Amino acid sequence: MADVAKEAGVSHQTVSRVLNDHPNVRTETRTRVLEAIDKLGYRRNLVARALVTKHSRTLGVVSFDTTLYGPASTVYGIEQAARAAGYFISIVSLKSIDKTGVRDALDYLADQGVDGIVVVAPQRSAAQALADLPLDIPVVAVEGGEAGEVPVVCVDQVEGGRLATQHLLDLGHETVWHVRGPGDWLEAEGRVAGWRSALERAGREAPEPLAGDWSPRSGYEAGRSLASMAGVTAVFVANDQMALGVLRAFTEKGVRVPGQVSVVGFDDIPESAFFSPPLTTIRQDFGAVGRHSIGVLLRQIEAGGPQASGRLVVPPMFVPRVSTAGR
């Protein structure tokens, strides 16, 4: 910084102000300092900066199974929001979620000197692990259920399930079958609750849900079962990947979509618009989840530590395509 100051003909303090985007620097002075930085190839020493400011400008992220579209998209949204706020990201991806694993991940990130941590907690076991842990660093849970004192940012999964089911009922279907996600996933629970509440409100019977594990293969097996049942005209599938399997099974069995059966998915993965037929689905705004989770975390950091818990809910969006039709 001393070399930059000498090259630009300014004080060390002025260089610091430029680097920190301080507003009280004249435009011509800022330009001169930036030109000196480029000429000398100056790079900030983030370790030294952290020692002085007591902030690393790094946030930790704990996630589970980032091979799945939802967790992967959530992490991407968090990373983009953190970068926009001037922070780096350090990620720990866990193979399984339990109290010990979450505690070890939090300790690992705390040892790296992160300023705060976002935990992507889509499973009930992860939320319970967070609720039971003593926390001495700002933490935000994404999804998270009832995570004790930890603030939670989530998509309204119940409303998403309700929107999908109500759409099918409004098209004149007598009832709606459901292919659900894994039992321990909070998102799966919420979508089941929304599906069931829409049917109950309409005075319709809720058929027994078919179990899935988020994979196209599990959707394919569920689709084969549904194709063999009489009276199935509408199906809400808990994610688009399983819906892909359902559509494949229906095609093999000669069941026309939407001519005989209407199908709605969930997530709006990029490929869903190119399924055969293009899939009606529910979109989750992962960008908004990322922005809100980073915003909640940064407010805790600015306040000097963990704050009282709260719940920020992001609404889902209905995306109509041609896999659904009226009776």
From TrEMBL:
The keyword DNA-binding applies. InterPro entries: HTH_LacI, LacI/GalR-like_sensor, Lambda_DNA-bd_dom_sf, Peripla_BP_I. Keywords: DNA-binding, Transcription, Transcription regulation. One of its GO terms (molecular function) is DNA binding. Transmembrane segments: none annotated. The keyword Transcription applies. Residues 1-53 form the HTH lacI-type domain. This is LacI family DNA-binding transcriptional regulator.
